[in-house]
Each structure stands twice: as structure tokens, then as C-alpha cells.
Amino acid sequence: MTVRRFQLGANSFEVDVRGSELLVGVGKLNRPTLKARLKPSEAEARAEMDKLIAAHLARGYVEVEVPPDPEIARAKLRAEQQASDAFLQRVERERAARGQAHAEKLARAAYTPSRNTALEREAAHDAEARKVYVDWLLEAGDPRGTIAATFLSGDRDGAMRLCADLTPYGRITLEDGFAVAASVSGERLVDQVRALCGAGVACTVRWLRVGLADDGDWTPIIDAIAASPLAAELRQLDLDASDRLAREPDAYSEADDELYRHVAPVRCAGTPRWHELAALERVTIDGPFSGTLGMASTSLRVLTIRTSGLGSIDDLLALRSTAPNLEQLAVFAESLPAAQRERLQAAFGARLVTTGDTRGPARYGQIVE
Question: How far apart are CA 182 and CA 48, in angstroms?
Fold first, then answer.
């Protein structure tokens, strides 16, 4: 409890209760010496204190503020500093532990998978061949064999946990026990994509969704995929600058809202290595689109763009020659000027689709050049 002080002229009276002890001090101004009076209980000590206070108030004493004891203040500061130092040390230890754990996870994830293309082709369409392939992987010591066997035994959650332990970033979707799709978003996106595409467990991924690029430029992302083992395997790539990957469908976050209030337009600066994604058939761009694509692909069949509005359409018109096997260009824009629509229609005819999008709206934010 805090000491209470009362003064009358040069006289001072102090009183306090600590447990069953009643501490009373009487003396000259600000210099009374507290002396303990032991009571049977704390309640009786407090009752006695109240009586003494009432008696001194009746005599004209006035309660005044008790300045903090310098030594007590210094002790308090030392205790606070020690607590702060201990907290910072704990945070640093936890950060180091997380860093070590993540480094170990990256090392585990970067293993070289065992591949058997003939068995893989058969396993994709035949359940019995899939079991043979799983046994082959288990004999080869590939962790994908354990993941697939766990999945096929009915323990899908267990398989997902095993898969997550070998997934350096993002999320992987399993089908029949094998990775078929993956999604990744967040800061340092190029590093994340590079690690995910190089993970052994992701070697069978055919559909990759990449979230909001750090500055809106997806060229480093394309180049990272092109330099990875997935370059010759990937069939579909979604570049998603909306908030679809960053939040739960029905959740609202003020932080997400702030992030997507200012979004750099989607673009591919320079000359991205599209041509090295030899199996890529579908590309989806979701978000504010500057129109800069740099696309050169003989395998591309379908390009879908969902956007609040197009910038330049010159790169889209160039697809007539840079993507000669393009079968469909779908442009779902909140605002598509008639002049742009007419030019695209003249270039692509029936291959152009501008209505009938089946996906719900997403937030794109305010475009910031």
C-alpha cells in the first residue's frame, strides 16, 4: 500500500498498512520515522489507520502527496530495465530459433526428387499404377512416397502436414497424394517463388498462383520460374494482384484493406523469359493491368485478364504474332473503352471474350503509378 502523509504547519503525520502491521510516523515536516504496530489482522490494522487519519483531519491536518523515494524509483527503473532486457533477449532467441528452423526447413525442401516419367504418366490416370509409383518412391527414399502413401491410406490431413514440412513457402494442393497446384504470396516474393519452385515436393506442380508482386513487376517472378525445375512442367500460371490470396474469402482485415488501397499496376518490365515456360498453356492476370506483358510463347492457349481497367493494349495486340497458338483472350474489365474493345475485336475476332466471367469480384485498390 502507498504511504499516506498529512501535514499541519511544520508537523507531519504518516501512516501505512502492510499486512497486519500498522506503520505510523509523527515528526517534523517530511521527516517522520515510521514505526510498526502489530495488529491481530490486516482488517484491524486498516480500521486503526482510518481512526488515526480521521483524528488528524479533525485537528486540521491536510493530506499531501508523498514524493517517491529516490532509491525506490531507482530500483523500479532497474527492474523495468532488467525486464526489458530479458524480453528483448527472449525475442532475439525466438527469432534466432525461428530462423534456424526455417533454414533447416529450406534445406529439407531443396532435396532432389526421384523421377520416373513413365511411371508418372501411368500413375496420373490409373490407380493401380499409382500404387506401383508410390512403392517405387518409397524404395527410392523420396519423401513424396510417404506423403502419397499417407494420403491414399485416408489420412489426408496427415499427408498435408508432411507436405507442409517440405514446403518452404506458400501452400501446396495435393491430388491423389501428389502436388498438383501451389500458391504463394507475401514479401520477398521472388525468393519465395524460387524456393517453392525448387522444392522437391513441388516437382509435379502444374498450376502456380503467385500473389501481389512487391512493386507490381512480374518479370523477376517469370524469370525465377523459368530458371526452376518447373519451367518445362508448368501448365497454368495465375498472377494475382487482387487480395484473393492474401485473405480468407469471408474475412476482413484493416491491414489488407490498407495494402490494397495502393497497388502498383501489374506489368512485366523488360523481356521476361516466357518462352522458356515450354508447357505453359494458361495465364491469368488478376489486378490493375498496365498492359505491359512482354509475352512470347508458342505454347500459350488461353490468356485471361481480370482488371479494373486496361492501360495500353499494344502488347495484347502483339499476341497475334508473339503467341501464335492463342485460342482465347478473355478480358474482363470493369471499364473497357469502346475504342479498345473495337481494336481487340478486330485483331482476335471470336477468340476475344469480354463477358461471362464466373469468378466473383476482388479488391484491387487504387492504382498508383
Answer: 74
The helix/strand/coil state of 304 is: strand
Residue at grid coordinates 491536510: 62
Instruction: List, in sequence order, every beta strand (DSSP E) within 29-89.
Output: 35-38, 62-64
> What is the three-class DSSP state of 212?
coil
- How many C-beta neighbours within 10 Å does residue 264 have? 19
What phi and psi, each to the nearest 5 degrees, are found at residue 307? -155, 160
Helix (H, G, I), strand (E, B) or coil at 275: helix
Estimate to the nearest angstrom the gap between the alpha carbon of 167 and the chain centroid: 15
Asked if 328 and 303 touch (Cβ cutoff 8 Å), the reply is yes
How many Cα atoms sit within 13 Å of 292 on the Cβ side? 14
Find the range with the poorest average confidence among 113-117, 140-144, 274-278, 333-337.
Answer: 333-337
CA-to-CA distance for 297 and 185, rounded, in angstroms? 25
Contact 147, 176 (CB under 8 A): no
Q: Which residue has the cell 495500353?
A: 312
Which set of grid coordinates corresponds to residue 79?
527492474
**Cα–Cα distance for residue pair 91/272, rounded to 1 Å:** 41
pLDDT digits (tens, 9 = 90+) for 93-151: 888 888 888 788 888 888 899 999 899 889 888 889 999 999 999 999 999 999 999 99
Q: What pLDDT is recorded for position 253?
A: 57
| Among candidate residues 243, 264, 258, the one with its CA nearest the CA of residue 360 | 243
Pairwise CA distance, residues 221 & 315, whole Å: 19
Contacts of 135 (CB under 8 A, 6+ apart): 145
Cα(353)–Cα(14) distance, integer angstroms? 87
Please provide residue 212's backbone torsions phi and psi, each rounded to the nearest 5 degrees: -55, 120
Q: What percent of the chain has pLDDT over 70?
A: 85
| Side chain identity, residue 235 | R
DSSP letter for each residue of 118-149: HHHHHHTT-HHHHHHHHHHHHHHT-HHHHHHH
Alpha helices in 231-337 (DSSP H): 254-259, 314-317, 319-322
- Residue 275 is placed in which grid cell? 518462352
Show Cβ contacts of residue 98 under 8 Å, excluding neighbours closer than 6 positions.
Answer: none
